[in-house]
Amino acid sequence: MKKNILLLFLLLISSRYTTAQYFEDEFPRIGFGDFYYLKLFPPYYNYDSSRLDFSAQGYYYDKLEELGLTHIVTKAGDISYKYNKKLKILDFNFAWKSFNNKDYLAYAYARAQGNDFNYYPYELGGDPAPLSLKSGFGDSVHTNFWTSFSNNGFVNGNYSHPFVTGKKVFYAPGSQSKEFTVFNTRLNNYQQSNGRIDNSHIYSYKAAFNVYAENRELLNSRDTLFIVYISESPVTSTFSLSFFKDTELKNLKINGVTIHKFSFTADEFIPEKFSTLITPGFQKPGEFSTLLQLRIVSTGKTGLHFDKFAIYDNKYENLFLSTPAIQDSIREEIRSGMYAAFYEIAKNPLYEHPYFDEPWFNASRAFNTVSMIAAQENGIGEGKYLNGATGDYADYFLDYTNKNRYYPYVLYNRYPILCGTDSASEGENSLQIALQNLIKYTDANGLTRGLLPAYQITKDSAGVSLSRRFVHTIQVQAEYFVKNSMLSRCVYRAPTYNEILIQGNLALAYGATGIMYYTTFTGTHGANINQDLWAFYGLFDEQGNQFDAASKGIVQDPAQLQIPNNRYFAVKELNLFIEKNKSIFLNSEHLSVKSVNAATKLKFGNLEVANFRAGKEKNCVIDCFDNIESTFLEAAVFRNSNENCYYLFLVNRRCLESETRYVSFTITGGKPDSNIRISEIDSVTSFTVKENSSIEIEIKPGRGKFIKIEE
What we know:
With 711 residues, the protein is α+β, with helices and mostly antiparallel strands. The chain is built from 14 helices and 41 strands. The strands form eleven sheets. Strands 21-3-2-1-28-25-22 form a seven-stranded parallel β-sheet. A hairpin with a 2-residue loop joins strand 26 and strand 27. Helix 7 packs across helix 8. It is globular.
């Protein structure tokens, strides 16, 4: 009964969330990390938190407020509450390891991963499933697309289920004189990513199989009917089926890594029924960089029908598959641990919610459970659910988490300015290629990820808002590896002033109603260390030692005075623009967004906007226009029903200082014999036009401009 009451409570608070609007009337501008965060984890001082104290500078909170932030990701507590008087806190305590075992247990359970026969199993049989089916897990007549399989021409992968019409299974016939492979696969590494958190929290996995054995009653009870081999291998670009060679299986080694072997005998099957067969626990020492690989071998003693399988870790098993008593006990440990760690600090009015950075998507079910426990009044506190950046997962991964976890806002992160990206708009490595990847990237395997798919998961299948914000994290940092005070390897180059603006304005055009900036402070290791170590360069630099990849600032001592750099002032300009126009973003419905040129038509209400051209000069006629293919304009349409008007948001994607554009377009339609009123929001310019009039506005590099249109 206790379990049923808890489940009912969780259902009720989950239902309450679905009608709540996060951040209320605020457009959040979130800074990732502050100088308290840097004090706690200073790479320059080998992560010795006792070496830094920014109290004389008030932890630079005045500068963070001047930046126009509303929220900060940091550790909630004495320092952040003493010096920070205004910024709401997304509390990174939850993921840090300085807790006692009970509250750290909550973090371990929030990372639990797996699936079971009733919850997104790997279905076997039929053709590979398209991405639209159960986010790639397959359905009753399709094998899941994350596994590839092979057989020797003897196994039927499209066999009819003996008890369920229309369901397909893998069929391995009997009467064979030797063992043969039924199924051979490598699982996508996004699935079971956790091997351990630390030596105290090691994940143990089990694999479960749903199998039917023919003529079970005629078999010797100790006959081995099939064998499962499980190991792991490095992630490669192809899913080769050449692994698990016979010699490796015999020796139970592959590249020095142990292969786990599990045999299933006839007495483990229920006669005339599909049976659930579960392996003992096995450990996965690797992390995200390895793939689980699995092979099923039939002994040929009888015909076998393989319906589906699942793989889950021990914490997933405790949360969802164990007895009600165990499930209740685990949930109570999670609740009491979080209460002890967070309840008091979470009562501060600046406390927004715990921050959990980039949880694995397949942990979404466990994450949701821990989050709802946290949101109880006797957890962290009412409404204090977990949330954080998702990572730049493909759209079907985001869709999976959307179905299995409630979050009041989607915090997406994708950084487009790689090393080698040219700031120019033309050329092989141009900025525009990077921006196109940011918007709606599609790789060779058809995996879409970017602003558009991230925004789309805030809608239901009919396109209706789920009252869920889309918050995008933009790149304001450079990231390098440093060795002997020299840059040894580059990951992301520092975005220019205008490249920061364009990232923000594109996010706004694609429906964002919140922005996070990664990262605010700069963190490097000390000088002359003879190994590659990660360094990142944010919105502040050591005074007199400003970062310049070509010359100086490569190693920065955070104990020296910190001053804002050029990227700081770009973020400040973007935040000022957002603050000025936040009522439009928050109170208008986002209707559409497109990359536009002379062939594009935007239709809304009775109106049509078309013939977009970008000119290098005012009142351009012919020669000063950009080519249609390289106009590089983004246009979004918003509708404000309260004001009975539309807003056209135009963004100049070009970012060189010389690339101001005079954008022209025509507008037609409207009510018969009526004028159309046009207003530039950021100026006093307002005028009335007739149908088919041409309008021209100036847009500086990387900026966006609102046009209010009233019929």
